[in-house]
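User: Okay, second chain of the day. Same drill as before: sequence in, structure tokens out.
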Amino acid sequence: MNRIFKELQGRKAITATVMATAIGVTGVAGGLAAASASQTSSATPPPLVMESSQESTVNQTFNPFQSNSASTTLGMNSMIYEPLIQFNVAKAGSDYPWLATKWNWGAGGKSITFTIRQGVQWNNGTPFSAADVAFTYSLLKSNAALNTSGLPLTGVSQSGDTVTLDFSSSQYDNLQNIASVYIVPKSIWSTISDPATYTDSDPVGTGPFMFSNYNTSGITLKANPHYWQANSVPEIVFPTYASSSAAEDALLNGTATWEGNFIPGIQKSFGATSKNHLLYFAPVNTNAFFPNLRKFPTNQLAVRKAISLAINRTLIGKIGESGLEAPVTNAGGLTLPSFQGYLAPAAKALKENVKPNIAAAKKVLEQAGWHMKGHFFYNKQGKELTLQISDPSNYSDYYADDGLAATELRAAGFNAVRVGDSDNGWYADIADGGFELTQHWSLTSVNPYNLYENWLGSAVSSSAGNFERLTSIKVDKMLNNVAAQAAPAAEAKALVPVEKFVASYYPVIPTVYGAAFMEANSTNYTNWPSAKNTYESGSPNAPTNEVVVLHLKPVG
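Assistant: Same drill. Structure tokens below.
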């Protein structure tokens, strides 16, 4: 299946200091901004055909704050709108200043000041300024529906080309969420009565592309003539596919340039068939089953513990994920080996069962008052232990994982069934709580704090994270303590109570370490990411797909 990165990516540890931190202009945003946009060849390169998420139907909607807009589900938000910083998820310490050229933490990490890039224009040719940045963050501050990551904003102020954000608590380790907000034009969005439901059918952004065409076959973006960096790709096509097999066929027959799907046997069917066929699977996050904490029976601790004991993480990684994703080995859920340096000694003891323990799962249920009825499934107070495990049926790996889990859970006394949803139905169920147990990727984070805050933070929108709907003042205080740590060693220590909470309360049930899947065809474009060229992960998902596109060079 396709890993949508929740519009926030990253895999590196950011070290913040109590003193001001200033980051110079480097990487893509520095090098390409000064480069000539002219091509060495007079011929126009062909369109880039990319699939970030296999969708059968889409609407002409580009609201970057909506989880179900076409621009979000298709992964095109960062092609149109841009953040203050782009985070490199593949190589620690090499992030890119974007619409901000530098940033400085205030004392105690309760404020941050961004210096906003000059000379940038919106795609309609009007000037972009710090006023647009201040407006966007003020919009989030006053509209919880837009503030999906739950930024604790208490103030937004502008002075010349700088914007200062104030927070109710220290945010040293939350730079990713803070700086990944898509900036929108004040001149347009200030006139919108309800920005949360705004369709934004003809979007105005600072990104390298702008809307060109919409039809039932997909959406086409064309190069933004006012863009502030060099861009060698003239057009991007985001097609709709009737099925995952149709998306795979497009990849194999060459009509698709870039995809990010789980495809069984892809190493042989694609990777070994041509020197122009490129594969890159960077390990970047933690997959997990999310139990609905507001529905029976997954609101029962014993049930969640039994689920964790019964599932076969090794088989999920080997069969469901075709050996591309390793089983989670630490019950705290920390993404390994990415964040190995943050695994404190006290957390190393949180061993995860990588193979099922059916006897232990049954014992946990029986101690909680569940009793076998008719030698098939457990019952308690007249209620049978039924469980629906739901994911989109076209997410072939997750659908296979669910089937494996259902088999193990039935052996443990659950009347467990796998349910195949449509993409849109699944997204809706996650957003409104219409599920019992579902598997989902985690936020691909640049810092462990972001992983856990997205999993457990009470202020996080259920459409963006905290799918299990945990509300805990105690956990929020733990997370605030983590965010306040300026040094990695201190953060690792502060993470231990959070990791122990995950390992003992099971608000999420980690399964395997997730990969950022990349399948690309270098016939027309070169300089793709790889294990040796780690300027970014190869995922075609937003926001970092923009970084990849701006690195691409046309052949000839």
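The first strand starts at residue 48 and ends at 51.

User: Thanks, on to the next one.
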